[in-house]
Specification:
By secondary structure, the protein is an alpha/beta fold. The chain has 11 helices and 12 strands.
């Protein structure tokens, strides 16, 4: 009997409009009640669509829940100082009794993020690597000193520490450089908008790069629920094309399960491959269907749990 990946959920920016605060918080409540393992939110510094600060939103969800994991997918690590990030996520982890997870990326798709933060975009990879390394030290609670080409500080201390003296760091990205970063520095890999075939290729490469490490693989999968596959694909293409400012029809065809609950469940099963430990099902929806889309996702979760003997 194979082990099925755990299922999480979450939502992204308000590409087609923004829900009310009450609806956003209720989404987190219902995600825990439905039994999802973790709850994920996005991050940008400057963005044309409505988007809440991820740590603020996760803190609000933490105050209303008791079990569900609280994660970023992804947090743009090079935009912040290591001390600020260490403090924010240590605080979130402490207040949520150890439920925080830091999913990170280097960014670069939108120059405006880096301009807003005052960070040269050419430094994003190096700053990310340096920050991951120093976060581990800062979370130990001891005074930490760092002098490199990106940061220059002495005896910085972050207390209280995270519950387990660390917050898991899961690294996003598709490139060879991203996979090398996962193998060297991460606790896991977060493939995002990738087909099952590309995820499998990435896992194979990680096993070559880090044969002695057991890395968590958390595949993020957008889904569009609807009465039929064709109309749902059209909606998903409009949503993601508006979000990423380019035609996303080919990506939707390869990477975005669409249609009724049964069709989405069947397509999502393609990600239940060897090495994938978790799948994050992120429903796309207009604001007035936010909670309904979560109910649809919960229907997928119920089927996922009921299947006892391998793939769906």
């Amino acid at each position: 009997m194979s082990v099925r990946p755990k299922l999480g959920t979450g939502f992204g920016p308000g590409t087609l409009g923004f829900p009310t605060a009450a609806e956003l918080l209720l989404f987190g409540d219902r995600a825990e009640d439905a039994g999802f393992e973790h709850f994920w939110v996005n991050d940008h510094m400057s963005w044309i669509h409505p988007l809440l600060d991820p740590v603020v939103l996760l803190s609000a969800i933490a105050a209303r829940t008791s079990r569900i994991g609280l994660a970023t997918g992804v947090y743009l690590l090079p935009l912040r100082s290591p001390a600020a990030t260490a403090r924010a996520f240590a605080s979130l982890d402490y207040l949520s009794d150890g439920r925080a997870m830091l999913g990170v990326g280097i960014g670069g798709e939108f120059d405006e993020d880096f301009a807003a933060a005052g960070v040269p975009i050419a430094q994003r990879a190096g700053r990310t690597d340096a920050t991951i390394r120093v976060l581990r030290e800062l979370w130990n609670g001891e005074p930490t000193t760092l002098h490199d080409k990106y940061f220059d500080f002495d005896n910085v201390q972050v207390l209280p520490r995270p519950v387990a003296c660390r917050v898991p760091i899961v690294v996003g990205g598709r490139s060879e450089a991203a996979l090398s970063r996962v193998a060297e520095l991460g606790d896991g890999w977060m493939p995002y908008l990738m087909s099952p075939q590309r995820v499998a290729m990435g896992i194979a490469r990680l096993r070559e790069l880090a044969p002695d490490r057991e890395l968590r693989v958390i595949a993020h999968v957008f889904a569009q629920f609807g009465p039929d596959v064709e109309s749902a694909q059209e909606k998903a293409t409009r949503y993601l094309s508006a979000q990423y400012h380019r035609d996303m029809s080919a990506t939707v065809g390869k990477c975005v399960p669409c249609g009724p609950i049964e069709a989405v469940t069947e397509q999502l099963a393609g990600y239940a491959i060897d090495g994938v430990t978790d799948v994050v099902l992120r429903p796309l929806s207009e604001p007035d269907r936010l909670l309904a889309s979560l109910d649809d996702a919960a229907g997928v979760l119920a089927t996922w749990r009921d299947e006892k003997d391998g793939g769906l």
